[in-house]
Amino acid sequence: MDLSVYEDYAETLEALDDEMRFEYLLDIAKKKRGEPFPEEAMGDAHLMHGCMSRVWIIHDIADDRHYFRGHSDAAIVKGLVAMMTDSFSGLTTAELAQITLDHVRRLNLGALTTQRQVGMMAMLKHIQKLAGARPGIQAA
């Protein structure tokens, strides 16, 4: 299982204090501006529930691997969405089922706000549901 993108995010976040984490998430969101999200995908069919902000996630499959793209109407959340979709794109259904809430906890975003971490956990469940993964998402 290739989690190198996830590992890069986790290691960077571990090295940052809370204020710098906000800046880092905003930088991730700014980088995604160059990758337009399809306007037709910003409807109820792709709207994720369980997040205070509006979040849309789309899903494609190629060579038995799942690829995700997302968008949010809030800048920091857009960075969180990009982090999650980038981290877990390219995995198989079985690999996605192995991703646990501990992966989300390791990103240490609960230090920003508990609500954001809960939203990230909901996003993981949503990604796994889109991929048809039967997650064992309790703590590993």
Features:
2 strands; two-stranded antiparallel sheet; mainly alpha; globular; 6 helices; 140 residues; Sufe protein. Chain: A
Cα-atom Rg, whole angstroms?
A: 14 Å
The percentage of residues in β strands lies in: 5-15%
Structural class: mainly alpha
How many helices does DSSP assign? 6
Q: How many domains make up the 3D coordinates?
A: 1
Taken in chain order, the helices and strands follow as HHEEHHHH
Q: How many beta strands in the DSSP annotation?
A: 2
Topology-level CATH name: Sufe protein. Chain: A
Widest beta sheet: strand line-up: 1-2
Characterization of the model:
49% of the residues lie in helices and 11% in strands. With 140 residues, it is mainly alpha-helical. It has one domain (4-130): Alpha-Beta Complex (Sufe protein. Chain: A), CATH 3.90.1010. The two termini are 16 Å apart. The model has no long low-confidence stretch (mean pLDDT 86).
Question: Summarize this, please?
Answer:
It is built from six helices and two strands, in the order H-H-E-E-H-H-H-H. With 140 residues, it is mostly helical.
Layout of strands and helices, then pairs:
Blueprint lengths: L3 H12 L2 H14 L23 E8 L2 E8 L2 H14 L4 H5 L3 H6 L7 H18 L9
Antiparallel strand pairs: 1-2
Helix pairs in contact: 1-3, 2-3, 3-6
